[in-house]
Amino acid sequence: MRGKLLVIGFGPGSVDHMTKRAREAIEESDVIIGYKTYVELVADLIGDKPVISTGMTEEVSRAQEAVKWAERGKKVAVISSGDAGVYGMAGLIYEVLIEKGWTKDSRIEVEVIPGISAIHSCGALLGAPIMHDACTISLSDHLTPWTLIEKRIEAAAAADFVIALYNPKSGRRTQQIVEAQQILLRYRRPNTPVGLVKSAYRERQQIVLTDLEHMLEHDIGMLTTVIIGNSSTFVHDGLMITPRGYQRKYTLTALEQPLKPHERLRKEAEPWALDQTKPNVRAIAEEAVQKFARQQKQPTSIFEVAVSPGVANKTFSSQQLLVLAELVGDKGTITYTPEHYIKLEIQTDDPAYIVDRLKEAQFLLAPVGDVLTIKACDFCDGEKKEAIPYAEKLHAQFGGMALPKELKIGFNGCGMACYGAVREDIGIVYRKGAFDLFLGGKTIGRNAHPGQLVAEGIPPHEIVATVACIIQQYKEHGHPNERFHKFFERNKQVGGFMYQKQPVPLEVPVCGE
Ligand code: SAH
Q: Quick one: 84 and 108 in the same domain?
């Protein structure tokens, strides 16, 4: 009869986190071999099958014993915690077999059944610390020379891997974790988040969130996995999270803000992402290495801000332009956007300094993103200035406010409305001492259309409150990413103004047809 070795990873410890195949494999085997603690964890599944359980250090003899039983034609379950291929029994079993001249056609069949390894079970309990490139390093120098382990810690630390340390400490081995911490501190900030998970998904489970500097003040033992964050790992509400990419953005409203999911998928937000068209793997790898070397010295964050000379003032002074050039430097960008503002992207780890310098140069600053912006006209170079205070009031009160989607208020100081206020989400036009109000313009697209004229002659002292009511309603009831014109159409009214369907544009016959 052909014997079979079922090398089973049973996951972290609870039956719920074991795969169906792992359970079946235990059930279909004739004999069970494993370290006694593990055998106890799956005792319910074993029933009254013969069990050969040995101590931790006798792994080789356990593998030899398993092979012997298989040679006698038995189905043997060799059980390992986590995944049997990660510091488990799978490799040893093959080594013992190969020494005996085993090939796939031999009388003994081998099936390795995967399980959830500690890096994944402990990662899940901590939040989402793995997420990006990660590695496992075992600190046990029982089978590996310490000099090699040291080298691996150093390389992983330098390359900014998230690291899961297995076998961090035991009764006799207490120094390795101390030395590992010292190596890591040479490459990572002392406040790098560190998670310690002991006995994940077992009865005595313990989860501790700490940092690189303080990690040794907590209990670490044989059953602990230590997860070290990379340079962008952060802690939120007791959870350890590694973002999917590196580039972070500062904005005026949130001093440090990770990219939003929809932004992260854009190529310009992840400039290192593989080009879809012609991947030249070598060139990409070389560029990545150079980029990494540069990043070691450079700030890793980008500060984004929109600047203008003022609400009504549209003229930049040469002094202001010099300040922009200096602050942006070689690495940043100055963009004139389709929305007619100047957007700066500045590499810095000190956004507060940039804000101070820009304010000193008399710039008006506005955040970038899903916020409210006010685009006012130049009030005919200030000649028609009666409405300016209202534009400034709106800017001071609502400029930069976070909303479901960016919202533009167009504000024009006379009936000419030459800055196109009526085409914006909210259009305000000052005429004959009062305001006309347009809502739900669609600025771009084939079906672009002006806003609906919802009121004429709003007295000046009422305009700010009227607009406030509209904005508040959109803020509270707009769906995330829902543009204002869509919201107006869906909601049927906003601020008490009723929506009216825009007439469908006439089909214009193509000349000659
Ligand atoms: N094959 C196992 C690893 C065995 S080495 C796996 O894939 O998970 C033993 C080390 O694994 C322990 O020192 C500890 O660091 C880690 N480990 C295994 N099970 C664990 C659990 N339930 N909770 C925390 N760490 C665990």
A: yes
- Separation of CA 202 and ligand 1 centre (Å): 12
Domain holding 19, by residue range, is: 3-116
- Please state, in angstroms and rounded to a whole number, the distance separating the CA atoms of residues 359 and 355: 6
Is ligand 1 within 6 A of the CB of residue 200?
yes
Count of structural domains within the chain = 4
Residue 222 Cβ < 6 Å to ligand 1: yes
Say whether both 374 and 495 belong to one domain. Answer: yes
- Pair 344, 416 in one domain: no
Task: State the pLDDT at residue 181.
Answer: 97
Instruction: Give the DSSP letter string of 237-286.
Output: TTEEE--SSS-EEE-SSSSSBPPPHHHHTSGGGSTTSPPSS---HHHHHH
- What is the Å distance from ligand 1's center to 26 Cα? 20
Measured at the CA of 346, the angle between CA 299 and CA 260, to 5 degrees, comes to 85
Q: Which protein residue has the closest C-alpha to ligand 1 atom 5?
A: 87
Least Cα distance to 305 among 371, 365, 247 occurs for: 365
| Residue 372 token pair | 């409210």
Domain check: are 405 and 455 in the same one? Answer: yes
Query: Quick one: average pLDDT of 267-283?
Result: 56
CA-proximal residue: ligand 1, atom 4 (nearest): 87
In short, whether 13's Cβ falls inside 6 Å of ligand 1 is yes
- 259 or 486: whose pLDDT is higher? 486
Could you read off the pLDDT of 474-512 as tens digits, one per residue?
999 999 889 999 999 999 999 999 999 876 666 666 665
Q: Is the dihedral of CA 279, 281, 286, 292 positive or negative?
A: positive
d(CA 307, CA 158): 38
Please tell me the distance between residue 188's alpha carbon and the centre of ligand 1 in angstroms: 25
Examine the domain organization and report whether 96 and 86 are in the same domain: yes
Q: Is the CB of 122 under 6 A from ligand 1?
A: yes
Task: Give the mean pLDDT of 282-307.
Answer: 71
d(CA 97, ligand 1 centre) in Å: 25
CATH number at residue 427: 3.30.413.10
Length of the chain equals 513
Of the chain, the percentage scoring pLDDT greater than 90 comes to: 61
Q: What is the CATH number of the domain that holds 305?
A: 3.30.70
If phi > 0 it is left, if psi is from -120 to 50 it is alpha, else beta; for residue 296 that is: alpha
Q: Is the CB of 160 under 6 A from ligand 1?
A: no
- pLDDT tens digits, residue range 411-433? 999 988 888 899 999 999 999 99
The lowest-confidence range among 150-164, 213-227, 385-399, 455-469 is 385-399
Return contacts of 331-340, CB within 8 angstroms, 24+ apart: 331/298, 332/302, 337/306, 338/444, 339/373, 339/375, 339/408, 340/375
CB 370 within 8 A of CB 257: no
28 CA to middle of ligand 1, Å?
25
